[in-house]
Amino acid sequence: MRANGILPAVAVIALYLLVPAALGHVDYVMSLIVAALTIGGIAVAWAMLGNLGGMVSFGHAAFFGVGAYVSALLTLDAGWPVFPAMLAGGAGAAIASVVTMPALRLRGPYFALSILAFAHIFRILATELESITRGAGGILSIPVLPTVAGFDLSSKIGSYYVILTIVLMAMAGYAWLRRSTVGLALLAMHDTEDATKVVGVPSTRLKAMMLALSAFITGVVGAFNAHQINFLDPDYAFSGLWTVLPIVAAIFGGYRTISGPLVGALVIYLVDQLVFKSFLPHGHEIILGALLVAMIVLSPTGLVPLVRQTVTLVRQTVTRGHHAAA
Question: Mean pLDDT for the chain?
Answer without folding.
Answer: 89
